Structures are given as structure tokens and as C-alpha cells.
Amino acid sequence: MAARLELQPDRLFPADPALRAIARRLHETVRDLPIISPHGHTDPSWFADNAPFPNPSELLITPDHYVFRMLYSQGIALEDLGIQPVEPGGRPVETDPRKVWRRFAENYHLFSGTPSRMWHDWVYSEVFGLDVVLSAETADLYYDTMDAALKTDAFRPRALFERFNIELIATTEDPLDLLPHHAKLKRDGWGDKVITAFRPDNVLDPDYEGFLDNLETLADITGCETTGWLGYLDALKDRRAYFREHGATSTDHGHPTAFTADLTQAECEALFHDIVTGASTPAQRELFRGQMLTEMAKMSLEDGLVMQLHPGCFRNHNDALFARFGRNMGADIPVATEYVEALRPLLNKFGNNPDFTLIMFTLDEDSYSRELAPLAGHYPALKLGPPWWFHDSPEGMRRFRERTTETAGFYNTVGFNDDTRAFLSIPARHDVARRMDCVWLAQLVAEHRLPEEEAAVIASDLAYNLAKRAYKL
Amino acid sequence: MAARLELQPDRLFPADPALRAIARRLHETVRDLPIISPHGHTDPSWFADNAPFPNPSELLITPDHYVFRMLYSQGIALEDLGIQPVEPGGRPVETDPRKVWRRFAENYHLFSGTPSRMWHDWVYSEVFGLDVVLSAETADLYYDTMDAALKTDAFRPRALFERFNIELIATTEDPLDLLPHHAKLKRDGWGDKVITAFRPDNVLDPDYEGFLDNLETLADITGCETTGWLGYLDALKDRRAYFREHGATSTDHGHPTAFTADLTQAECEALFHDIVTGASTPAQRELFRGQMLTEMAKMSLEDGLVMQLHPGCFRNHNDALFARFGRNMGADIPVATEYVEALRPLLNKFGNNPDFTLIMFTLDEDSYSRELAPLAGHYPALKLGPPWWFHDSPEGMRRFRERTTETAGFYNTVGFNDDTRAFLSIPARHDVARRMDCVWLAQLVAEHRLPEEEAAVIASDLAYNLAKRAYKL
Amino acid sequence: MAARLELQPDRLFPADPALRAIARRLHETVRDLPIISPHGHTDPSWFADNAPFPNPSELLITPDHYVFRMLYSQGIALEDLGIQPVEPGGRPVETDPRKVWRRFAENYHLFSGTPSRMWHDWVYSEVFGLDVVLSAETADLYYDTMDAALKTDAFRPRALFERFNIELIATTEDPLDLLPHHAKLKRDGWGDKVITAFRPDNVLDPDYEGFLDNLETLADITGCETTGWLGYLDALKDRRAYFREHGATSTDHGHPTAFTADLTQAECEALFHDIVTGASTPAQRELFRGQMLTEMAKMSLEDGLVMQLHPGCFRNHNDALFARFGRNMGADIPVATEYVEALRPLLNKFGNNPDFTLIMFTLDEDSYSRELAPLAGHYPALKLGPPWWFHDSPEGMRRFRERTTETAGFYNTVGFNDDTRAFLSIPARHDVARRMDCVWLAQLVAEHRLPEEEAAVIASDLAYNLAKRAYKL
Fold this sequence. Notes:
Three copies of one chain form a homotrimer.
Chain A lengths: L16 H14 L4 E3 L6 H6 L6 H5 L4 H9 L23 H10 L8 H13 L11 H12 L6 H7 L2 E5 L9 H8 L6 E2 L5 H4 L6 H12 L6 H17 L4 E4 L11 H12 L5 H22 L2 E4 L3 E2 L4 H7 L7 E2 L9 H7 L7 E3 L6 H10 L5 E3 L9 H15 L17 H21 L5 H19 L3
Helix pairs in contact in A: 1-19, 1-20, 11-12, 13-14, 14-16, 17-18, 18-19, 19-20
């Protein structure tokens, strides 16, 4: 007989009864707050078109690199999970989504103890009403139940959005995106609910695939001359303004390092010349990325967009996989990341200005207590993004609070980001974050370090208010 | 109505009743032990002159960079906190200490979850008898109560020293200090209570502001010829002897890295020549700092002073702030710090000698389990200083014991240092340290890893005996 | 009166009653599983010859660097612990094992809170039936009791092996070892119980003492021409085959870094030429070590040996100690270790092949969540070795699970390794590992993150099945 699946109301709360009681009381005060999702990667066409999701596998497995990388790590070919290679040929791709689902179900034990397990169980129970644990045995029951549900109107994107009590979601687009989906959303009265964010890596990073082509497209879109430094800056300003018209309140920058620079205009012009003529060295390209962060900060002070930076990931570590499947296939690996020297040029220029906000993320948890909390506990412009990507687990969230609160407090942090393209997991992720923050606060209360009334105020700030404030929502 | 402020006797103890009971029993055995404060930055003139502290803000806010950096990080100008710039001009400085106090009170929520909050609450409740939580509403009550108390004899420095059950405090002075306050203290019979420590950064580090001028002053004071290597060493020996006469049992070294060197005398002379003629490169200056640590170790073996080293801080990260306000304004940021290669020259020379003691501090907690505990668990000369500065929080203390005990045990550590210039917080900080050590020991007892009688012995050692032994007090 | 020594059945379980009850139930399901010890350093002659151990000190102190390095760190000379220097002369060596034992007993408090304390207490209580705590007072009682026991047949190595419920143990030998003890073990029908592992550092690492001599010996043993690249590779293949005949299922590589390389054959030949002619630079020697890891991986794909790599230790940090006592004297210190760039050449070549297994160990715990779990959660070939050496403590085990499970799950790990030369501590170490894994699982269960039935399956996998599977036993 299949094991029962039941979401326990006290999940993630500590076993100790006193701690659990406090955590539960705090959580009750934030459980039903609307969701603010200021940083994520859902597809805006879902909300613009409101078409049904095709089937359980294409909704929950194929697009989620958290899921398929774990299966891959245990020797399951991506093709057998229905993932399409960039170019045809090679091992045939599984085309039956039910078979993909069964393969996942048979290997569900691989996810024991991982956040993916929690998110998926939440989705199965809460969204689809399933009450047995996923396994080889229950795979078809799952598939049939979910597939049938997805065909109903109640499971279309906008209905789920409302059901999930989402107040606002930000998607992420690059400057070459014309934002047609956001335009439609605006026309449909959804412009305040689904906004964009400005992610210019593909026109700021000379190592990005197709960088020079992207600059040409940028010129076409903006009418600016992107072969010269000032025209290039104008083009970026133009696109930032366009994104602001489509709701953007923030920019988002994924760089290999946190390196920033502060060059003179003459140095910038000379550097840009080498960059666009393709004559640049790797060091020059890193210098350019660093300078562009400082330029983005400057533009943020002018147009008010909040700036987000998340460095420290070795992208596309697996050559063969990248050649066959392209980006975002679970082969991005965090590396040690230095912030103190790296951010100094930018912070010395703009860090003392309280009108500027730079939200820093990290994949190197060592930097929490050593570098990031001390920096955020000093510079008015700097705030700490939440534990991110590999670290938005219960343990990752606990480590974040344990290592940053002592030096940066709560008010130099910005609430939770789900950062996901897995739409159905959004409420589950916010649920985990709210619970873990309440657990941390409960510990402070139980140890007589914080009165419970103050903890309740902080719980609401962490769950809702800080995100609105930090992202100017 | 204002929330009640009440110091709970079980504060910082875990919620679990069994653990809490053990922690409480252990803590009872150490709670009333005298305070040994072997490393700190209180002003010796306080104890020498025994004048009243001027007012609550100048006692508790203006001199405490833990406090004002947090306020600054949230956009409050230092001038508005009454902090004087190095040079006049610019934004006017708030001169009314009551207004400064109100500004702090209005923002007291920024400190929730931080050690500063605990220390301050302890001071308000225990020292001043306040029984409501600090807030905008209670700001004036606080100010009036504390201001009145500070005008009484019971709140003069020496009375508080006795009230706090301090057995000994070490202040920190540089070699150019003639130690007039310590001389007066000696005359007043306080020479065994307030001693100095020898902190020679300003005459060892060629990058220190005014280094060459400092060498001239050093020559004036000692009558040694500090423009030559041997005369320079003699001058340092001379000052060490002078400091020993004023109670010093230790030296203290704050270097950018833990780098040490072991050069020949000819190499030292050549290097020193380049240093004092101002012709040195950054690499030479680092080499010089490294060599001087080894020289200090050698002198320690001769004169018995215990050596302390705390590397790994990027000082004065914020240029604009440094230009306007100078050093120690909350803009010192820890950096990743390497110990294994760095300390090898010094340890290979003196590390096997049990008559030499080198106490290592770190701001890079990653080094606890990886480098420092293994080094201290091997070299007879090496001991681990307590969690320090950013890390003397309850969490920082727990991390320290969790990551060092397994490899270095308890007896390669040296008890607690408060390292503070905030005199009133000293008992609060020792209280936190004693509680957190008892919590750690209670966990070992509860998990049947240590008999409770042994834990009680260790608790006393951590609270009192190890500091006396390590610092030769 | 001496304090009682009693192994508590709930040792290492959390104080919280609910957590403890779950941990206890889980532990009951794995407590009596046989021990698989796939990676260790016991002496195969013990099992081959089955001679009695000489006396308590030579069994428990002299060969255990965990023990004598702690005593050394507190100023006790190694000679006073009966440890023989490499060359005669200098301080006389204590020859009375009873005096050595007393010295250890007097200082047993140094081990409070360390894993050594737990292992030793387990051995005293469980193996020798002692019921008072070791101290100066009980030193002779201990010595006499243990010395008498060691003279009985029940305490000979094979009897203890059976008593400890060991199913299989792997020792570690280098390619120049002719494996006579394993041959005898095979003849005695113990060939399935005691196997070897192939540890070729002394013929792969040009910086190893006697490297060039070792290559000559390798030529003598194999008949291959080890002065040329292809002959050298053939010799290694030959020895791998020999080791496989003596039970080996794995290789083991202790390199200073995790650096790997992927050179062309021409580059390999040129590099090898410089290496064997002694004309190589340090960079070339590092390149050679890196290339040899990739060669070992290639051979593993051919012959099926599982590959283990543990980088990141600065060996023989203490020059004077090394000169007098040689290797493995407690002066090996972990260093920060980079994996993402370093392993890329090897992983890009073989990491996608599920038929290859690379088990990675680390002494740099920072890499758990940042580098190793993400790599193991992606590459089919990569698995994570358990917390190792300095980190096989209860805290180290907890940190390992807390930082790797979220990203790599349980099934990219390989169970426990005791990695010890202290034979009597093996069951104690596995006991600690099983308990700590059950504690971690109990927490997941108590927090409603994992059903208890699933946790029980995982507990068995971690205690027994994963080691068998990963090491192909």
C-alpha cells in the first residue's frame, strides 16, 4: 500500500514543544500574507496568454534544473527525461510525457532531504489534492490526476496566480526583449501584478554568447549608436526607461565575480573600443564588466531602479552537456567569491548614498559573516539578498540568519526571493522561507533575546514589508 | 504602554528543559567568578582620573562603532549622532546629546537579534535599573534616568569597576604612549587592576599613517638610533620593558594578513634600509611586517610577553568616511585569511617552544576547523583566541566551540576577551560568553559526551582560569 | 573516588525527547549491521599474523597521531610518549610503556569534547570492560587490566575483527608493496574480509621522498621500462591488476590540491621526460600530478577500480618534527581547496560516464555546500566521501549532512569511512557515524520533512548499503 502524503501544519518547526509553539504563533501571523515575488524567472507568456499547462512532465520536470540535474547525477540521461538537445541527432529523446513522469517517480527517493522534495510534496498535496506519496507504484495515479486537473480552467496560470495569493511577481527579461507579454498584461489590467526586471548581462558581458550581435540589435531597437561609448550608454538608458514603463523597479546582474571598477571617461572610451572591435583580452573584459556595474549603479541613482548583483557561479561547467543542451542545465557550479576588494570601487562611489540600493546575493556562504554582513552593516546603499539558488533550503535559510543577523540585523536584508521558473513551487518556497524565519525568530524569543511582540513585527517585515520596501513596490 | 524590559535568568539557554537545566547548573558555578579582561580598548584615563562620564550619548553611542555603524547603514548621518569629523566644515554636527539619544532610541529596532541589543538591554536593566524597553516613547525617560545616575559617585569608573567584579583589565597602548594614566593608577594602588598591553602597529607597519614620524618619536623616547636595524630593535625592546613595568603581560598585533617571515640579519638590514628611506614597494612592506612578527616572537621568548595576533581586516574601506572621520568608524571589513603558509616561518622557528605563547585571533571563521584548530592542536606555542569583534555574538561563540573543540579541545583556547571600548558592556559580554560556553558544555553533557562534573571544571577554566594562565596574570 | 565510566545507550542523541525517541528507533535498525570499512590504514600484518598486540601504549597511544599531537600541543615531548625518532640521538625516548600510559592518563582531560575521548571511552568500556573514567588515579588499573586482556586469545586481531562484526576491511598499500600479508590472508580464507587498496602517491608525485628510486623499484617489480611514459603507464596498470588480484576495488590518491589536467600524449611524454630526468619545475610537477589523476581515471574506466581523491593537506608543516620523526606526526594541516576549476579537466573527460566513480574527500568544509554538493549533484561519476580525518567528529558529521543533503541528497554520498590506523576505534567510529546520521534523519522526520519509514531505509543505506555499492564490494 502506498504511503500517505500529508502536509503537516507544523512542518519545519523544531521538535522542542516550547520552540514549536512560538514558531507556530509567529507563523500564524504571516501565513496568509500575500506573496511578493520580486525576483524570479517565470515565463510572462503564461500570465499573458493564460493557456493551460501542457502536461505534468512539461510543467514539473523538463523545465526544472533542480529536478533533472539530480536524476542526471545518478546516471539518467537527459534525453530520457524528454529534454530536447540544442541540435538534433544523438540519443533519441523520450516523447511520451507519461514515461518521463514514471522515470521521475521511480527515482523520487533521490530527493529525500532536499528542498525539491518539500516543494513537490507541497504541490502534489496542496495544489492537486494527492494524498499518497509519489513512487513507481503511484506514478500513473499522479500523472492522470494532474493531467486531468491541468485541463481545467482552475489550473490555468492566472487562476493559480490568484489562488496562490500572489500580489506581485517580477519576471526577468533582457534588454533585447520587446516585452510583448508585459504589454498585453498591462492591457489586461494585470500590469501591476506581473512586472519585468532588467537583466542586461547579454549586452554588458563581452563573454556572453553573441555579445556583438546583441549590441547591433540594441542599436536597432533604440536608434542609438552602440559602437561608441556614449551611444552605448544612451541605448542602455533608453531600454531601462522602456523596462520601467513595463513595470520594472529593479535591474539584475549575474556576473562571474563581484568585481567593480571606476574608470575615467577616457579610459571607458578606450576600453569600449577594444571591446567592440573584438580586440580585448580576458582581463579587459573583466574590467569592462566591472565598469558596467558602476555605470548601472550610476543610472540607478538617476532612474531609481534597484540594482541586484549575484556573482560567483561558474556557468556551463560541463562542456559536453553545454554543447548538446545549452545553458541552465544544472551544470552551473558556485565558486569562492571575494566582495571586499571587488565592490570597493562601486561602494566608494555610490555606497554612502541612501537613495541608491544595491542588493547583493551570494553562492559562497562563507562570505555571510565575514564580508557581506559587515559591508551591509555599514554602507547605506547595500542590502543583503536572501539565501539563493543552491541555498534556498531550510538549512541554507538558517545559515543565512545565523551568520548575518548578528552584524547586519534584520533591516539590512530584503525579504525572500523565490528566484524560480517553477511557477507551482512559488507558494511552497515562500512557505518554507516564512517558516524558517519564524523558527529563527522563535529561537531568539525562547532564549529571551527578543520579546515575542517584536518578533511578530519582524516576521511580517521579513515575509512581506521588506520586499515591498527594498524593491520599491 | 511601553513594553517591559526584564533580564531573564535563563537568557541564552536553549529551550529544551533538560539542556536548560544543565546549562543553568553549570552557569551557577561560574556566574559570580571575577572578570578577567586581558584584551580590550577601554580608556585608561577613565580609571586614572575617575571623572564622571559626561552623558548617556557620549557614554553609549558616540564611542561605540558597533552602534553607530548600524544606524549609518540605514541612512543616518554620523553628524546627526554627534560624531565629530576630523576636520571642521561640512554637515553640522548635532551638539545636543539628548537629540542624539532620541535618534538612537527611535531606531532601536535595527538592533533586534544583534549582540548590541543584548549588551544594551543588560546595561539598561542591570546598571541603570530601567524596566521598560527603549523606544521613541521611552527615550527621554532613559536619558533622564541615566544622566542623573551618571552624575552620582556610584557611576564613576572605579565604582563601576568594583561593582562589575572586575579583577583585572588590560588596556591597549602604542609604544609612543608614555603611559601616564597607568603610572597614576600604580601610584593609586590600582596597578594590579588596570594594566597596559603593547600594541606596536604604528611603529611596525610601514603603511601606518605617520610611520616614519613615529620612528623619530620612538628614537626621541628611547634614545635609540631608529634609522638603523639594530637600533630600531633596541628601541622596541626598550619600550617593551617600559610597558612591562606598567603591568603589560602581552603584546597585540593587528596586521592585514598573518604573513610571517624569517630573514637573515643581512636581509633584515637591507630591507629596513629601504623601508626607512621610503623607497619600499608594497611587497617589501608586507615582508617587513612579516619579519617584525617573527622579531616580536623572539623578543617574547626573551621577555616573557605573550604575543597576540589578529590579522584579516581591510581597514578604512570607505574612503569618504575615512577622510572625514578617520579610523575606527565601522568601515573595517574582514577578508579571507590564510594561516597555514603564512604562520609557517614563525612557527617553524618558535612554535615548538612551550615557553612561547602566540594567541591567534581570526575574523575568518572558515579557518576555525580547517586551519587554526589543527595548528593549535599541534604546536605547543599556539593557542586560539576567542571569537572576536564581529563574532563575539552568541552564534559566533557557538560556531567557535563547534568548530574548534573537536580538534583543539578546550585547553588550546584562552578564555574570553571582550575587546571593547564600551566599558559598561564588559560584564554583559562576559555574561554572554559564560552562558554560551555553558550551553555548549550542557549539550556535551546531555548527549553523554562529557560527565557533568568535568563540564563544571571546564566551565570555570573557560570563564576564569584559562585567561589568567594564558596571559600570565 | 574515581568517576564512573558508563556508555549511555542514548549517547549523541539530542536532548529533546521527541527527537531522541526517533533517533533511537532509527538507530535500532542499523546498530547491529555489519561494519564495512572500505577505506582505512590498519596494518594487514595484524590480521595475517594474528599476533597479540604488545601492550596498551603501543596499541592505543604510540601509533595514533590524533592522540599524541594533542599531548604534544600542550608541551609534552613525543619522546616522553615513547615515540621513536627516525634517527637516534637527542632527547632519550621513554621505553617503559606503563610510564607512557600514565602520562597519557594524567592528561586525559585535554581530550574532553573531542572525538578521541569518545572513541577511547568506547574502547575502555566496550572492549575492556572498564567502568571508571581514565585519570592519573586509575592509570595503573587501566594498564593492568588492558595488558592482561591483550595477552589472551580473545584480544588477538582476528578475534577482535569477528567480535567487532566487521564484514570487510580495506587496508591501504602503495604499488611497491608486494602484499605478502594479503596473500597470506587469502590462503587463510580471509581474502574476502581483508582487502587492499591501491595508493600510488609515492610513484605519482614527483615531490614524494624517493620518487625516482621508487620508479626504479617499480620497474624491477613489473619488468616495465619506467623511464618512458608508456612503460610507466604499463607498470601502473600492471600493479593495479596485481592489487585487484589481492582484493582491491579502489584506488586512493592524496594530493596537495585537486588539480587535474588533460594533456595530449606528446605533452605527456615531454613532461614525463622532464620529471624523470629531475629537470622539472614545481609547476611541472603539479601539472604531472594533475595529469596522473586523469590517467588514473582512465585506467579506472578500464579495470573498474573506484577512484578516491583527498586533496588539501599541507603535509609535514613542522620542519623540526619532520626531520626528527618523519611523516604522519600530527603536523599535517588542512588548507583552502578549490574544486570547480581543478576537477574540470578530469570531469569533462570522464565525469559524464556513470561507469566511472570518483569519490571526493575534503578537509575544507567550506566546499561542501559551495562546490562539492553542486558538483556531485550534477556529474554522474562524482560521489562525496564522508567527513574525513579532522572532521569525522559528531559536529563534522552534522555539518556534512547539513551542507550537502540539500543539493546532493543522500544518494550521491557513499556511507562512512573510518580512515583509521587505530583498529580498536573502528567500531566506535562507525557507532558515532551511525548515531549522527540517525540524528540528522530524526530531525528531518521530526520536522515532517521525511516519513520515518523512508528515514529507516536511508539509515540502512548510509550505514551499510551505500558503502558496498560505491566501493563495489
